[in-house]
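Q: Got a minute? One more chain.
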Amino acid sequence: MKLPSLSHSLFALICATALCAASPAMAQTAASTAAPAASAPMKIGFINTERVLKDSALAKAAQQKLESEFSKRDKELQDMAAKIKTANENLEKNGPVMSDADRIKAQQNLVDMNREFQRKQREFSEDLNARRNEALASVLDKANKVVRDIALKDHYDIIFQDAVYVNPRIDITDKVLKALDAQSGK
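A: Always. Here it is, folded:
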């Protein structure tokens, strides 16, 4: 059974009414606590996680670290691809005039080089993805702590990370980016 959604103040009023029926002493306590809740509007915020992972200084630093960490392996892969291309062109150019044994040996060498290249490329991709995921998880963890701090400090009732539509009035992404960048600058 799905219950209709209720506003915060209407829910508090219904709870107070239910308690009144249960006990007069409870009714007085419920009324005194429901009154402030009924008058306080719900404070909602939104954070664009994609922007945090793209625009924060922490995310940019993590990206630069990944690039420097994997640039050597990337260069090796590019060099290996160039060698394979040169060997393939050489085989196509000289293959018809080569002896059968030399051509077969060159073809096998090309197959072996290609297999090794694909293995190294696969390992590179797996390692890069694993490290990228670790770095993004670290950035998200720090961003979530900043969001919690802002929520507690500014008395937010709820902060969403994903939504179909967001009114820019409740978007606190810039505030989170500033706090996160200030924290990472320490």
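A: Confidence is low (pLDDT under 50) at residues 1-35.
Q: Perfect, thanks.
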